[in-house]
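Record 1 of the preview.
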Amino acid sequence: MTVFEPVRSGSALTVPIKVTNRGDQRAFYEVAVRVSGDHGFDATVRMKSEAVGLYPGTSWPAELIARDSGSPVPENPQVTIVKSTKSKHTR
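->
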């Protein structure tokens, strides 16, 4: 998984990610990313690949939107991967 630099989007941060299946079977992915920063900004955003799963050798881009209604968007957010799981396609 690749996490790119967050982009400010009004009162939120957009966190671009790309998940790549480097295995030899279709797989499903679940990801959780924590975004924190100045003035107490703290948000955890999640995504789960659905439908048929990722085929071997393919990538899936996504944008996660991080918001914290109690804090302003930080200038220099810190992004941490808190969960990244892969499960085999079972259908």
